[in-house]
Specification:
The longest helix has 33 residues, at 88-120. The chain has helices at 2-28, 30-44, 57-75, 78-82, 88-120, 126-142, 150-158, 162-188, 196-221, 225-231, 234-254, 262-290, 296-307, 311-322, 330-350, 352-360. It is mainly α and 385 residues long. The chain is globular and about 55 Å long. It is built from 16 helices and no strands. α3 (57-75) packs antiparallel against α11, α3 (57-75) runs antiparallel to α14 and α5 (88-120) runs parallel beside α8.
Length: 385
Amino acid sequence: AQTDMGLGDTLLNGSAARIKYLLSRAKRQWFIIGVCLAIFLANLAPWVGKKGGPLKPTITVKFAVASIFFIIGLSLKMRQLQDTLFQWKIHLTVQVFSLVLTPLLMCTVANGLTKLASSSLDIDGSEYKSAISLLDGVKVLSCMPPPVSSAVILTKAVGGNEAAAVFNSTLGSFLGILVTPLWLLQITGSAAEVPIIEMMSGLASQILLPICLGQVVRNVGLKNPDQLIQRFSISKISSGILILIIYTVFCETFSGNFEIEMEFLLAATALLLMSMLALIILVYSIATAAFPHLTRSDLIAIMYSATHKSLTLGMPLLKILFGGHPEVSVATISIPLLIYHPLQIVVGSMLVAPLQRWLLSDSPTNKSNSAGSANGSGDKLGFAL
């Protein structure tokens, strides 16, 4: 009997440990779980968050977008950016690759697949519409700027040039406000339908003004802004607001006719995964060929910053540009962006350990965070993707 009781206690303790482990994992991935839950709830009761619904998205979403960029402005450390201001080789590589080369390459691939779909699928069928919608979303994803957080966090985890990652995430966000809308209007073919004055007004009132206001509050109104941000988990508040925006986007979509076949979602996921790995290899090859004296620490910052895409900036921009235009389904074209976001975190996390070994295998001089060192980046990237 005592043996049976001991066995029962062991099984109970083991189950409790597994539950505790799963809860801790869920806590770390709460944002991805929240996005999935938001899409599920939007499908369950789309009337709540659609236009004219009790959530009043035409008003609440504008405040939500402005709040996100106010938090970005509040969190922005201008002094930290000054330290890496003159590391122009890193900045040039990241910004040109992220905002110019990536859109050109991915749009070329998507256009080729669009022609393939047109020749092999019935253009009046639902499969063709699903394929074309997802390929349009891949084009939209390609022109998004670097993210504010994930590239910085992963660069820091590896031990790369964190300051350069912070600088390029910030610079990419500002450039994205100008460059990304132009790409989006060109890619979706909606430039004629979106009034320029209305677009610029939305960008100014919901992005530029909140960022400036956040900077004023940080530098004038607060004594210890970083302590306040950490104490009240401001970044989590921003992520929660982003989930609200995603929820309203899918409420609007599910209130109409929304059909995407599962096989096309899986194909899109595979395409995005291969694209991400190809982009990592490509930006590494370009950086080492163009600037052979970059350190491995710098290259790590480049590989993360140049290949990651910002969901935080992307969804609000799509909402501002196309939220009032029924001919463009924001939810449909944002699906690849929603797939790419967790993919870049998962793949980036899997690369942390091999990149750490690659970094530590270099000489002490090359492990420093300085840019333009006399020491080169060493031998080729010594790990398997």
